[in-house]
Amino acid sequence: MSDSTDGGMQLEYELDDRPPWPKSILLGLQHVAVMIVPATAVAYIVAGDVGLGGADTAYIVQMVLLFSGLATIIQAYTVGPIGAKLPLVMGSSFTFVGAAATIGIDYGMAAVFGAILVSGFAVEGVIGWQFKRVKPFFPPLVTGLVVVIIGLYLIPTGMDYVAGGDAAQEAGEYGSLHNLGLAALVFAISVGLNMFTRGIARLLSILAGISIGYLVAVVLDVQFGYDLIDFGEFSEAAVVAIPEPARFGLEFEPVAILMFAFLFLVSAMETVGDMSGVTAAEGRNPTDREFRGALFNDGFLSSLGSLFAAFPITSFSQNVGIVTFTGVMSRHVVGVCGAILAILGLSPLVATVVTTIPSAVFGGAVLLMVGMVAASGVRLIVLHTELNRRNMVIVAVSIGLGLGVATTPEALQGLPTSAEMFFSEPVIMAAFSALLLNTFVPGEQSPLFDARSPDHSTESEPAPVGPGDD
């Protein structure tokens, strides 16, 4: 365990520490438990909107798990220039749901996977390759605001899960007492163990909360008939399924490629923000090499996965919250998480066990995690940025616009369709407003104006980067 230094937090395990195998497996399972439901939900939502059958839906879910696992392993250990050697758990992001469903309905799933294949590495690969030139435009103020808005705009999603999600809506039980009770139980156990215990109990607080919540849900289902878990899914799942290249085919529609290229830019911003949230635990910003490797991983694995019908892969903000919440920064724990995900991706039967977790149970954990993500963004800003008049205005504008479009997207319905799609993304609205203001308003973190002026008092310099920086 390390004490905090240079603004870093107290860590139970540092970046290169290797916890004992039993503890590593449990800690890796904790990461899996927090991300697997939203990661696979992307596949279920898109498949449902497009009208795919059960077998095709199960296959896409399987591929999402498999390539999430592979991308997580590469992120933790690297393959050549691909990967950052950081504890970043990878998965399929909700950023791509709307575009994938729209394109799938209008052009077919072949056009969806063709667009991912072309735009994935083309966008994030180029950004990663040239990140040394781009880096001055993303100081702690900008990246911190990206982390903050990612956490804040996911809070309604967490509350939706707490209330029971879509299944509860259809059953007329949204916000019912048993859903709220399950979420509250998970929330209370996770917070209680983290705050009032030590050792393995604190480190596995989230996994303990989800596990106990799931067991209680099983009791409510079997003994009291609450119909929280669909046990019929187990009988329909195959034990092992092998990936099939181009199962849905590949088509290349210009409109679809442009839409996904735009969304991969958003994904790159989210990854930059998540990386900053993780390294903030050490009181520093990511190095150029880490930025480049992580973005290469995003783009390359997304393009590769599209050949097997996986949706785009990017870093998962919920798991950044686990790192800061537990103080376990070991990349080897995340490598174990990746191996578990890959195994699940090869066995639909095993994956089904995890994907039957009721929304309310998961909601108790995700609400806590997204709050921690937002808090880590605030911490990143406070540690490396003086909140003078200039920077306070940038914070106010970015959060105001980002949350504005997140909570009231219909306010933009008068814009042209393409403009509405662009400006209704909370991360884009917050990130670009912060980027533009920070770039063109004089101040120390501006890449154009680095001289101090009387109107802009001294700002804290970013923490020095590690020896891996180029």
Description:
The structure is a single chain. With 470 residues, the chain is mostly helical. It folds into two domains: 21-138 and 155-369, no CATH class; 385-462, no CATH class. Helices cover 67% and strands 1% of the residues. It has 20 helices and two strands. The chain has helices spanning 21-50, 54-77, 97-107, 109-129, 131-134, 140-163, 165-171, 177-196, 200-203, 205-224, 232-236, 254-279, 288-306, 317-326, 331-346, 348-355, 359-384, 389-407, 417-423, 426-440; strands spanning 90-92, 313-315. A two-stranded antiparallel sheet has the order 1-2. Helix 1 (21-50) packs across helix 3 (97-107) and helix 4 (109-129) crosses helix 12. The longest helix has 30 residues, at 21-50. It is globular, with a radius of gyration of 21 Å. It starts with 20 loop residues before the first helix and ends in a 30-residue tail after the last helix. 54% of the residues are buried. Residues 451-470 have low confidence and may be disordered.
Task: Give a nutshell description of this structure.
The protein is mainly α and 470 residues long. 67% of the residues lie in helices and 1% in strands. It is a multi-pass membrane protein.
Overall tally of structural domains = 2
- Tally the beta strands: 2
Separation of the first and last Cα atoms = 28 Å
* C-alpha-based Rg, rounded: 21 Å
Approximate strand percentage? under 5%
Transmembrane segments: 25-47, 59-79, 138-156, 176-196, 203-226, 333-354, 360-382, 391-409, 421-441
Family: Belongs to the nucleobase:cation symporter-2 (NCS2) (TC 2.A.40) family.
Membrane topology: Multi-pass membrane protein
GO molecular function: xanthine transmembrane transporter activity
